[in-house]
Design brief:
The complex is a heterodimer of chains A (191) and B (446). Chain A is mainly alpha-helical and 191 residues long. Chain A contains nine helices and no strands. Chain B has 446 residues and is of the alpha+beta class. Chain B is 28% helix and 31% strand. In chain B, strands 2-8-7-4-5 form a five-stranded mixed sheet, with no helix packed on it. A five-stranded mixed sheet of chain B has the order 17-24-23-19-20, with no helix packed on it. In chain B, helix 3 runs parallel beside helix 9 and helix 6 packs across helix 7.
Chain lengths: 191, 446
């Protein structure tokens, strides 16, 4: 079993074996990240592919400070942002205001939503909102950092985030009502 | 605030360590991208586009150099260079023979092979996980330097230089002593109406034998400049194959269009029209024609398809119809002597044989075939006055009765045989006047 360090050294030498091992070690967890940013699986894999090419190309720049995974995760996120910027040129930019917001207002609490359900909710967001929500809520970036990464205003990041959040909350509430209309009490207990 | 945290916790918790297995081909996609990237970026240790370009340039230069001195003894003097050169040529040759996707595949695997070598030599991963990779600089040059000869030319298939090299090479292997034959000809004319006589004008160069093949029909001609007449309408392909003394051939082909000719024809009604007076309808029965020209024989003409004509003169008339097809092919039909026996006419013969047995009084039976009385044939004549003069200008006969002609007697004596001049005038039943004159020969029966 090779350590990350061995693999990094192999990758710096452009050793295909080391590259493949690094890929096999991290592909699935990085794809888990990519799929939150992508609108479908194919796009997620495109991001992953491009991200790995970048990882192998710039691996010599990896300083060794911080974990390799975090470094790669950041590359993946940046790649996703690049994809988003690229797609801005081609896609009709949809504003969240145009979305039909679900007509529920209460948060269902820790309902056991599956990954697929949560992904479908994230993916139903317009791309820009999805990225901001991911960066802030899941990755834990600050709005200031997000604004720099996306090249937008801090207030834009904040307002879009809160709108995305509100939208997601309502959508989740609607989903839980549809899914288990008779289990309201049980959920309350858990809460 | 609690709600806010709920959402973030929900997502963060759910997606912490969330894994999605990538599809099986994804690593290959990454690998392809990496290879391409590496290939495009210069690195002294790695096979890349710069090596390929450099080697190609060197190869071409070397090739050109040896091609020049091909026949001299310098070739023997430097067998080493020669070997390298021919090895490269072989490489290029095999590359070009392959299809593009295959080439790419080959390029990929060869790159891979090139890089497997140093890895297996050092194998830092396999033996000791902690061995630093710094040794790469030490061993790789030996492993890599040998590579270019074998592998570098393979990816060159993607480079535009490869075909150029091949061209050079092929020209050297053929070594043409004379220029190859060129097949070329023009057809004069290349299109026209059936029957079409076509001159095949040969412009071929460096050829000694010719084979003309006309299809359909499979006519084969061997003259240099043959002439062929196409008897049937259609599109024909003329294929000329020329060959030179060395048996090299060249082919040229062209087409001949032979258009069908129309068939002109017409009819008219009424058949017994009174000319001049009655309107006559002409009916076109032409086949394969789109344009017409009618000549009615009285100086009038028409371009209508089915014209109507009213003659103002006596017949008979020669009516002509010319019909043209869409391609301009023409056919002509002429009907002669039309309306000869139509109404309103009066015509005189130019000779008669007098009855020697005595005067008959000149009365005759219309339609009779006897020829001993000089009288007109007529239709629709109302008023009639005939005068006959001898050569001295003396009136020898006069009649206002259509049914009474001249029997050749003057005052009960048979007139001298010879030429007499006559004049007839009057009106037809439609009121139109007529004047006729001419001469008639009196013949005496022996």
């Amino acid at each position: 079993m090779y350590t990350d360090e061995d693999l990094i050294k192999g990758c710096i030498r452009k050793d295909r074996n080391a590259q493949r091992r690094l890929y096999e070690r991290y592909a699935d967890i990085l794809l888990g990240i990519c799929s939150r940013y992508a609108s479908d699986t194919a796009e997620a894999e495109d991001i992953l592919q491009e991200g790995f090419v970048r990882i192998f190309s710039y691996i010599s720049d990896y300083s060794g400070k911080g974990s390799l995974f975090n470094w790669m995760r950041k590359i993946m996120i940046n790649t996703a942002i690049t994809f988003y910027h690229r797609s801005l040129k081609h896609r009709y930019h949809q504003d969240i205001g145009e979305l039909q917001e679900p007509a529920a207002d209460e948060m269902p609490g820790h309902a056991d939503f599956t990954h697929e359900e949560l992904l479908s909710v994230i993916r139903s967001l317009p791309e820009g909102y999805r990225i901001i929500f991911n960066l802030y809520a899941v990755e834990g970036y600050k709005h200031k950092e997000i604004a720099e990464m996306l090249g937008i205003d801090v207030n834009t990041s904040k307002s879009q985030y809160s709108r995305a959040r509100r939208y997601i909350r309502k959508k989740l509430a609607a989903m839980s009502r549809i899914r288990m209309p008779g289990e309201e009490e049980e959920k309350d207990e858990r809460e | 605030m609690k709600e806010n945290n709920d959402i973030e916790q929900l997502f963060r918790g759910r997606f912490e360590g969330y894994r999605v297995p990538p599809s099986s081909g994804l690593w290959q996609r990454v690998l392809r991208r990496l290879r391409w990237r590496d290939f495009l970026h210069f690195s002294p240790r790695q096979l890349n586009i710069w090596y390929v370009t450099a080697l190609l340039t060197a190869g071409i230069a070397a090739y050109l150099y040896f091609h020049d001195s091909h026949t001299t003894e310098e070739r023997q003097a430097e067998p080493l260079w020669q070997q390298t050169l021919s090895a490269q040529e072989n490489h290029v040759d095999t590359i070009v023979q392959q299809h593009l996707p295959v080439k790419k595949e080959r390029g990929g695997t060869s790159v891979r092979e090139a890089e497997h070598a140093p890895q297996s030599q050092s194998s830092p991963l396999a033996t000791s996980p902690s061995v630093p990779g710094a040794s790469s600089g030490g061993h790789s040059p030996s492993g890599e330097k040998a590579k270019p000869d074998n592998d570098t030319l393979v990816p060159s298939a993607t480079s535009p230089r490869a075909p150029a090299v091949r061209q050079e090479e092929s020209s050297s292997s053929v070594e043409p002593a004379s220029p190859p034959p060129v097949a070329s000809f023009t057809l004069s004319p290349s299109r026209g109406c059936v029957p079409l006589k076509v001159d095949f004008i040969n412009h071929s160069e460096h050829a000694v034998s010719y084979r003309w093949w006309i299809r359909p029909g499979d006519v084969v001609l061997h003259q240099k400049h043959p002439v062929h007449t196409f008897e049937t309408a259609g599109t024909y392909v003329v294929i000329l194959t020329v060959s030179d003394q060395e048996g090299r051939t060249a082919v040229h082909a062209d087409t001949v269009r032979v258009y069908a000719a129309p068939e002109a024809g017409f009819d008219y009604l009424p058949k017994d029209a009174k000319v001049p007076d009655e309107e006559i309808s002409f009916y076109n029965t032409s086949q394969g024609a789109v344009r017409y020209f009618w000549s009615f024989g009285d100086g009038h003409s028409s371009e209508e398809t089915d014209p109507v004509h009213r003659y103002t003169l006596d017949g008979p008339f020669d009516v002509m119809l010319v019909a043209w097809s869409a391609e301009g092919c023409a056919d002509t039909v002429v009907k002669r002597g039309l309306f000869e026996n139509s109404s309103y006419y009066i015509r005189f013969p130019n000779a008669f044989i007098a009855n020697p047995n005595g005067p008959t009084g000149g009365y005759y039976t219309p339609g009779s075939l006897s020829n001993d009385v000089f009288h007109p044939v007529w239709e629709g004549v109302e008023k009639y006055h005939l005068q006959i003069f001898n050569r001295r200008g003396e009136l020898v006969f006069e009649s206002r009765d259509l049914y009474r002609g001249w029997d050749g007697y003057v005052l009960d004596r048979l007139a001298a045989p010879g030429v007499y001049v006559w004049k007839a005038n009057g009106t037809f039943t439609n009121g139109k006047p007529y004047v006729r004159f001419g001469n008639v020969t009196l013949i005496r029966k022996k």
